[in-house]
Amino acid sequence: MAYEIWSTAPGNLLATYDTKAEAVAAVHAAMQTHGREYVLDLALAYENSRGYTRTIAAGESLVQLVDRATAASVPSRVRRSASTTAGRRSTSVAAQCDPAPSEIGS
């Protein structure tokens, strides 16, 4: 049983993962690195223990699946905080968690 990422243009298998979450995370990383257009040429499929493969999502539906999974992985407290800061200057979650340079040596 494996989750597979396929390039739909040439029909090449790009990678396999044990879990759907790992495969979605890989597609998310590809979208962050190469952009949304790159992911539009990908498909996520599942191959069962008998070797039968079914497509889970491809193209725009894969982008939407990754967007939903990414949004679901953000804790609700952070989503609420982000929505309440609309119109005001806000910092990234990573910046909020990293110590200030002056705190590192203390």
Key phrases:
106 residues; alpha+beta; 23% strand; globular; disordered C terminus
Characterise the protein shown here.
The protein is α+β, with helices and mostly antiparallel strands. It has helices at residues 20-34, 36-39, 60-73, 76-84, 93-97, 101-104; strands at residues 2-7, 12-17, 42-47, 53-58. The chain has one domain (2-98). The chain has six helices and four strands, in the order E-E-H-H-E-E-H-H-H-H. The chain has a four-stranded antiparallel beta sheet. A hairpin with a 5-residue loop joins strand 3 and strand 4 (53-58). Mean pLDDT is 77; it is low at 76-106.
State which percent range the strand residues make up.
15-25%
Structure classification: alpha+beta
| Sheet with most strands: strand arrangement | 2-1-3-4
Distance between the termini: 50 Å
For the sheet with most strands, the description reads: 4 strands, antiparallel
Q: How many helices in DSSP terms?
A: 6
Query: Oligomerization state of this entry?
Result: single chain
Overall average pLDDT: 77
* Silhouette: globular
Question: What percent of residues adopt helix (DSSP H or I)?
Answer: 40-55%
Number of domains: 1
Unreliable runs, pLDDT <50, ≥5 residues? Answer: 76-106
- Radius of gyration, whole Å: 18 Å
Order of helices and strands: EEHHEEHHHH
Work out the number of β strands. 4
